[in-house]
């Protein structure tokens, strides 16, 4: 028996990066998947056989409408997000609003509208960041948004505990994803930027999508049934060291 056989799971940000890898690994372990994102072609590339929904997760009206036709769920992976760099003084209000909207408002709306769709025993994993735990330069708006995601996971864990529904957040360090590739290409010296990102933890390397997805699957599975309200760093030891 595959561990996720018979379970129906929703994954946002499933068209690329960690969300895509989570979806593919869950499918391999028997899950029935509903993939959510902004581009149908990307979702179909992830898993042609899955169900697909085009949705802007930070659009309240759109998420509310989506919820009316969404079937009961055994869990969610809310992996959609975006990164913009900059200091508090150097970040425009439009960029700040975008970071809050995409990284925090979106997960909030998904949980707000779909929380009552979660069956007893369900598990939800939110995508935070280790820069939401400890501040580093040049990520002000993103860091503040991800810190909010961490608190959202803790609040939901308390609110949903009586229904036996769990919620946790993971806090990755630099992982080699398409989103990070965009950041590297924008750097004056992409090779130097890659080297710098690889040195920010004691293991001296970036993480892989598969390593992060493995933790997500653990938190979705029955073996983590007493784990809720946690923020788990997965960053090569950076949080411990710094």
Structure description:
About 45% of the residues lie in helices and about 15% in strands. The radius of gyration is 17 Å and the shape is globular. With about 240 residues, it is α/β, with parallel strands linked by helices. It has one domain: NAD(P)-binding Rossmann-like Domain (Rossmann fold), CATH 3.40.50.720. The chain has a seven-stranded parallel β-sheet with strand order 3-2-1-4-5-6-7, sandwiched between helices. Strand 2, helix 2 and strand 3 form a beta-alpha-beta unit.
Could you write a compact summary of the structure shown?
This protein has 242 residues and is an alpha/beta fold. It is 44% helix and 17% strand. The protein has helices at residues 17-28, 40-46, 60-69, 93-114, 140-160, 178-186, 190-198, 209-220, 238-241, and strands at residues 8-12, 32-37, 51-54, 73-78, 118-127, 166-172, 231-234.
Q: Any idea what the radius of gyration is?
A: 17 Å
Structural class: alpha/beta
CATH fold name, please?
Rossmann fold
Query: What is the CATH level 1 assignment?
Result: Alpha Beta
Q: How do the helices and strands line up, and which of them pair or pack?
A:
Layout lengths: L7 E5 L4 H12 L3 E6 L2 H7 L4 E4 L5 H10 L3 E6 L14 H22 L3 E10 L12 H21 L5 E7 L5 H9 L3 H9 L10 H12 L10 E4 L3 H4 L1
Parallel strand pairs: 1-2, 1-4, 2-3, 4-5, 5-6, 6-7
């Amino acid at each position: 028996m595959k561990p996720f056989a018979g379970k129906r799971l929703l994954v946002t940000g499933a068209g690329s990066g960690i969300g895509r890898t989570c979806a593919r690994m869950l499918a391999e372990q028997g899950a029935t998947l509903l993939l959510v994102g902004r581009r149908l072609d990307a979702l179909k590339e992830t898993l042609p056989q899955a169900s697909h929904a085009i949705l802007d997760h930070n659009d309240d009206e759109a998420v509310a409408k989506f919820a009316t036709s969404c079937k009961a769920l055994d869990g969610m992976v809310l992996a959609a997000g975006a990164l913009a760099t900059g200091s508090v003084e150097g970040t425009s209000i439009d960029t700040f609003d975008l970071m809050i909207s995409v990284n925090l408002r979106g997960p909030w709306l998904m949980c707000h509208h779909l929380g009552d769709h979660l069956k007893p025993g369900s598990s939800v994993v939110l995508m935070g960041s280790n820069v939401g735990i400890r501040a580093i330069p040049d990520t002000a708006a993103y860091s503040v948004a991800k810190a909010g995601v961490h608190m959202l996971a803790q609040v939901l864990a308390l609110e949903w505990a009586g229904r036996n529904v769990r919620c946790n957040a993971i806090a990755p360090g630099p992982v080699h994803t398409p989103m990070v590739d965009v950041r590297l290409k924008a750097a004056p010296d992409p090779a130097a930027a890659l080297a710098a990102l690889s040195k920010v933890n004691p293991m001296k390397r970036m993480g892989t999508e598969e390593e992060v997805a493995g933790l997500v699957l653990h938190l979705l599975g029955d073996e983590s049934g007493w784990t809720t309200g946690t923020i788990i760093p997965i960053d090569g030891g950076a949080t411990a060291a710094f």
